[in-house]
Amino acid sequence: LLYGGYGFDDTDQGFILSLCYRILGGELPHIDFIYVRPPLTPLLHSLELWLLPQGIEIIGMRFIGVLYLWGSVLFSVLALKKLFDFDSLHISPWLLGALGFIVSMHNYPPMVWHTIDGVFFTALGVYLMSRGSQLSTVIGFLVLCLAPLAKQPFGVVPVLGIGAILLLYPLKKTLRILGMAAGIGAVLFAVVYFVFPGPTFVQAMLEQSFGATDPQEIIWPGIQLYIWPSLFILVGFGGIALLLRFRNRDQLASTIVLA
User: Fold this and answer.
1) Sorting pLDDT into bands at 50, 70 and 90, what band is 258?
2) Cβ contacts of residue 131 below 8 Å, gap of 6+?
3) pLDDT of residue 156
4) How open is the CA angle 51-53-54, to the nearest 5 degrees?
5) What average pLDDT does the segment 86-90 reach?
6) Cα–Cα distances in Å, from 220 out to 119, 160, 210?
7) Which of 5, 48, 151, 189 is least enclosed by beta carbons within 10 angstroms?
8) Buried (b) or exposed (e) across 103-137, using 16+ Cβ within 10 A?
9) What's the rounded Cα separation, in Å, for the pair 217 and 94?
10) In b/e form, how buried is each residue of 197-211, taking b as 16+ CB within 10 angstroms?
């Protein structure tokens, strides 16, 4: 019932699925086949494909794609609840979340995809950072750093995360948080580089992910696709908040109807 109306095509909907199947067959992205993005998405979903019972792989991966969309909206709403007092604004955050989920579901077919993964890790990282503790901020920032490992334009996300930490904490605590995150990241990179899959994999990943891509092609889509829409949403949300500050509900409803 959730996605029975969708057919299946072997282009976009079969793209990540086929890469996962190759990984389960013993191949590695960038080494055994060319992949022009960082490898997080096929590696992550190959684990999920391995866990699915045989015979339901396609429909199961569709459901997992829907779960990632749902999780992106859920963590976004939970983060907004930490930042805004929705009771005083007379707005239900879950209504906003439901609208966001409906829009997201109609933006992509039910499938796993690198852009959805980038949005998911961004939302999860922001939620963890919004919890307020130093440990959750470190973990949240590391999760934000997973977003560009799904797709290059999400490289702006960790930069924005550093800016958010600077706003939330004094300089000394900010340096401590970033130092802890950098230390954990360095250990993980050392494992990947020196243990498995090794330096050949890292070099091939960098060449294939960034060798054929101009830096402007990475930065501009990140701004155009992710930052500008977020700013427009925040401006709209701020406008609604101002209306609610100076008008009662009846007056606001009348204004919306007239608009």
Assistant:
1) very low
2) 82, 137, 140
3) 87
4) 120
5) 80
6) 17, 15, 15
7) 5
8) ebbeebbbbbbbbbbbbbbbbbbbbbbbeeeeeeb
9) 35
10) beeebeebbeebbee
Q: What is the DSSP string of 159-216?
A: HHHHHHHHHHS-HHHHHHHHHHHHHHHHHHHHIIIIISS-HHHHHHHHHHHHTTS-HH
- As a whole number of angstroms, the distance between CA 47 and CA 42 comes to 9
At position 132, the amino acid (one-letter code) is G
Q: Which tokens sit at 10?
A: 């072997």
- Stated as kind and residue range, the H or E segment containing 20 is helix 12-24
In 3D, which of 180, 176, 141, 146 has the Cα closest to residue 162? 141
Q: Tokens 């904490």 map to which residue?
A: 169
**Nearest-5° angle of CA 152, CA 220, CA 15?**
40
Q: Where are the alpha helices (DSSP H) in 52-155?
A: 57-83, 86-89, 93-105, 114-130, 134-144
DSSP-derived letter for residue 29 is: B
List phi, psi (to 5°) of 131.
-70, -20
Q: What angle do CA 227, 228, 232 make, to 5 degrees?
A: 120
3 state DSSP class of 33: strand
Contacts of 97 (CB under 8 A, 6+ apart): 73, 74, 76, 77
